[in-house]
């Protein structure tokens, strides 16, 4: 099985007809038990023209993006430089249209957010904000911190969070989850002398 670093890539990522240039613009191939039509032009891996197979393709890539980002703790994806979108082993890359569609579909499902109007950066929510908030509550209870004070940096990089999804969490995502919990009366966020000094007083 092909890997990207330590990440194991799914079979479809390296399936030769999926990336091979075809003189005939429409060719049928098999992935599992699914008959798929795909167009490959100029060495690019484009979107599939048949609705059912196109939806299957989008689903496979959505799952791959979320799985990769979760296991590698990637929060911000730049479409033009994201390593998943290129298979150097067989010299194929996703077309710009395909990259945009896959990420925009995640955005429409609440699993990502574009960070700029030009769609140059995308914030990936492999846990939704509510799910991150639930993880914070579990973290607090598991560590007996119900009435404690912590800095934001301690939550995302302290010893208590090691081995959890919270360790290394993107600051933007963490603050969104904390503000959601603050709105629900589970904690209070207070300012320090700098952004790194921001604190959280739990009241669970």
TrEMBL record:
GO molecular function, one term: protein homodimerization activity
Keyword match Transport: yes
Gene3D superfamilies per UniProt: Winged helix' DNA-binding domain. Chain C. Domain 1, Winged helix-like DNA-binding domain superfamily/Winged helix DNA-binding domain
Alphabetical list of SUPFAM superfamilies matching this protein: Winged helix' DNA-binding domain
An annotated GO cellular component: ESCRT II complex
Keywords: Protein transport, Transport
A biological process term (GO) from this entry: protein transport to vacuole involved in ubiquitin-dependent protein catabolic process via the multivesicular body sorting pathway
PANTHER family from the UniProt entry: VACUOLAR PROTEIN SORTING-ASSOCIATED PROTEIN VPS25 (PTHR13149), VACUOLAR PROTEIN-SORTING-ASSOCIATED PROTEIN 25 (PTHR13149:SF0)
Family that this chain belongs to: Belongs to the VPS25 family.
Name the UniProt record assigns to this protein: ESCRT-II complex subunit VPS25
Organism: Rhododendron simsii (Sims's rhododendron)
């Amino acid at each position: 099985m092909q890997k990207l670093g330590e990440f194991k890539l799914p079979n479809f990522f390296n399936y030769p007809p999926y990336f091979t240039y075809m003189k005939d613009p429409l060719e049928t191939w098999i992935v599992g038990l699914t008959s798929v039509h795909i167009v490959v032009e100029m060495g690019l891996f484009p979107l599939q023209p048949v609705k059912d197979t196109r939806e299957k393709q989008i689903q496979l890539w959505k799952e791959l993006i979320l799985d990769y980002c979760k296991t590698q703790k990637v929060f911000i994806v730049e479409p033009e430089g994201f390593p998943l979108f290129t298979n150097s082993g067989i010299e194929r890359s996703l077309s710009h249209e395909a990259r945009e569609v896959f990420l925009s579909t995640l955005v429409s499902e609440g699993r990502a957010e574009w960070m700029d109007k030009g769609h140059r950066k995308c914030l990936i929510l492999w846990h939704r904000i509510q799910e991150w908030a639930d993880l914070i509550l579990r973290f607090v209870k598991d560590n007996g911190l119900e009435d404690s004070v912590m800095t934001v940096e301690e939550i995302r990089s302290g010893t208590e969070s090691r081995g959890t999804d919270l360790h290394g969490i993107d600051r933007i995502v963490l603050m969104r989850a904390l503000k959601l919990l603050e709105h629900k009366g589970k904690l209070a966020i207070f300012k320090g002398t700098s952004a790194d000094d921001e604190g959280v007083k739990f009241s669970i």
